[in-house]
Amino acid sequence: MGHERRIPTDNSLAPPGIADDGDAMAFCTTCAFGAACTAEGYDKNALRELHCLVEHTGIYHEGDYVFRKNTPFTAIYAMRAGMVKTCLVDERGREHVLGFFLPGEMIGLNAIYPERYPCDAIALDTVTLCQFSFPAMVTLSTRMPTLQQQLFKLMSKDIGNASLLAGDHSADERLAAFLIDLGARYAARGFSATRFRLSMSRTDIANYLHLAAETVSRVLRRLQNQNLIHVSGREVEIVDPAGMNALARCILQP
Amino acid sequence: MGHERRIPTDNSLAPPGIADDGDAMAFCTTCAFGAACTAEGYDKNALRELHCLVEHTGIYHEGDYVFRKNTPFTAIYAMRAGMVKTCLVDERGREHVLGFFLPGEMIGLNAIYPERYPCDAIALDTVTLCQFSFPAMVTLSTRMPTLQQQLFKLMSKDIGNASLLAGDHSADERLAAFLIDLGARYAARGFSATRFRLSMSRTDIANYLHLAAETVSRVLRRLQNQNLIHVSGREVEIVDPAGMNALARCILQP
DNA sequence: CGAAACGTTGAAAGCTCTCAATTATGGTGG
DNA sequence: CCACCATAATTGAGAGCTTTCAACGTTTCG
Fold first, then answer.
1. What is the pLDDT averaged over residues A117-135?
2. CA of A232 to C1' of C25 (A)
3. Which of A131, B68, B158, B219 has its CA 20 to 30 A from that of B101?
4. Residue A176 located in a structural domain
5. At A189, is the pLDDT very low, low, confident or very high (cuts 50, 70, 90)?
6. Order of strands across the sheet with A128-133?
7. Between A118, A156, A168, which is nearest B109 by CB?
8. Does A96 lie at the interface with B, CB-CB under 8 angstroms?
9. Which nucleotide is nearest to B212 (CA to C1')?
10. Which residues of A touch B145 (CB under 8 A)?
């Protein structure tokens, strides 16, 4: 394994339900709601209220659905461990991957407007997450400005990220940007930015980057031959971060 | 002209400042904040407060900047008339168009998280808009749940829209989806869905759809030869909406 | 009227895709 | 523990779509 999970995934024995304070506080430091949860000077009751609308869900295994397209929107989810992809299948049967989610990131924010989940969310490995009732969050956020701001921030961030893939860039640039971005997000959670495991298949990567799976294979090989990365199965090491950044810059920079 | 502007653009003589109620109310029916502004049963004071944080800006002419990349984020804008593009220029000097904005739509929501505008916003023709101080909106929205919900909705919508261009589709499908989408958005504001004027250049369209300008020309010609549309300069008529929808479906449907 | 920007059209090159075959990996059951 | 199967990943060759480069026609506006 390229990195160690800091968040224990062995809470399978604990029944789903209200998070106990100890667990919740420990997790909150890496969670997307960290800023709201751990905000200083906060009324302890408010903090308790926020924790009370969280449910730790059971464990999801590879292939399990966190939610399905067109299901009524009820909750958003914070990743605790593992990786989830969001995707949808078009009428021609082709799968489009919208995003990959790492520990600490939020899923479901794009369901608020349509009031239904606009895509499927599928676990790529063993996943645990926190479920937040959205109606409850909305209510609470009117009394808790920090929470409201955090929601605004998270959503605004998502709007910006979406345009990452927008440009018409070469396959090499796309793959470089993908790996650099993944490394940066891992680093933000305390993992290694240069060594990690790809939980998703080459096909998933291809469907995310809008390339053919064969092209993903070829480009990974090409980057390795240029001594930019080292790939072994799903283990990846970024050998030359500067070189990779140079490739990815035109995508990540703007 | 393919459609009539319902919103007068001749307020250039009025000094920027607080919107008078008459104007504001008239506009609100087509504005993105309509739901919040015109919500029934609302405290008249709250409504007045919302209107008070709006400023009608002066007129922008073609090429004028509404805001510039990296400027500190202070306000979001609601389009009243005309068209604006948001774009950024990469280090190679190539322009990427992120979006086009029609009357009633909001600009600047992607600046909340970075706290700076992440792109330029440029008027494509004669533009008028309303400026909302964001800090003031945030404060007000804690007392005005409808406003908060409206903000959530608008942002969530933007997250979803961004994935419209994501797929790897043919140039024909992209152009068809672009025109159908534009028509639908015009229709949502009371204009014709099948006859309108493209305020942006072929190059802008190309930079938005990630095609070469020459390809845009060729595809428009191709669609016209198939009797799907009629193009004359920047005037467009969708002659066969069903056929165009069939082409665009795989992009717009999911 | 003339310059400059915009738009169109043609031909050749390049990148990625598709199709096909081969190799590697991981899980299952004997 | 190993054989076996299904899935995933890799590699090669040819086709297709879009891009690039270049030239020409058109519109706009000083």
1. 94
2. 12
3. B219
4. yes
5. confident
6. A17-18, A54-56, A128-133, A75-81, A106-107
7. A156
8. yes
9. D19
10. 138, 142
The span from the CA of B49 to the CA of A74, in Å, is: 31
**Distance (Å) from the alpha carbon of B123 to chain A's nearest alpha carbon:** 20
Question: Looking at residues A152-163, what average pLDDT do you find?
Answer: 81
Residues A141 and A223 in one domain: no
SS3 at position B113 = coil
User: Does the residue A238 lie in any domain?
Assistant: yes
Q: How many CA atoms lie within 13 A of A78 on its CB side?
A: 23
Does one domain contain both B180 and B68?
no
Give the residue whose CA sits closest to D27 at C1': B233
Does residue B178 belong to any structural domain of this protein? yes
Q: What was the pLDDT predicted at A206?
A: 96
Contact B109 A153 (CB under 8 A): no
- Which residues 6+ apart lie within 8 Å of A142 measured at CB? A148, B141, B142, B143, B145, B148
User: Could you tell me the CATH number of the domain that includes residue B123?
Assistant: 2.60.120.10
B70 at A interface, C-beta within 8 A:
no
Sort out which chain B residues have CB atoms less than 8 A from A138's CB and list them. 145, 148-149, 152
Spatial separation of the C-alpha atoms in residues B10 and B23, rounded to whole Å = 12
Whether residue A198 lies inside any domain: the answer is yes
Under DSSP, the state recorded for B32 is T
For residues A34 and A150, membership in a common domain is answered with: yes
Q: Do B156 and A111 touch (CB under 8 A)?
A: yes
Query: What type of residue is A119?
Result: C
- Please report which helix (H) or strand (E) contains residue A130, including its range: strand A128-133
Chain B interface mutation, best of A146, A147, A152, highest count of B Cβ atoms under 10 Å: A152
> Could you say which of B161, B187, B215 is where a domain stops?
B161
Place of tokens 């969310």: A121
Report the CATH number at residue A229.
1.10.10.10
Pick A98's closest partner by Cβ from B114, B151, B163: B163
Claim to verify: residue A212 and residue A154 sit in the same structural domain:
no
| Residues facing residue A79 across a β-bridge | A129
For residue A26, the model assigns a pLDDT of: 54
If we measure between CA atoms, which residue out of B77, B201, B84, B185 comes closest to residue B133? B77
Which domain covers residue A244, as residue numbers?
171-252
Same domain, B37 and B108: yes
Pairwise CB contact (< 8 Å): A159 & B91: no
According to the model, what pLDDT value does residue B254 have? 63
Pairwise CA distance, residues A220 & A236, whole Å: 10
Give yes or no: residues B72 and B101 share one domain. Answer: yes
Q: Which two tokens stand for residue A157?
A: 């961030």
CB-nearest partner of B162 from A138, A143, A162: A162
- Domain end: A117, A135, A161, which one? A161
Distance A232 CA to D1 C1' (A): 26
What pTM does this model have?
Answer: 0.85
Task: Please tell me whether residues B148 and B76 are part of one structural domain.
Answer: yes
The structural domain count of chain A equals 2
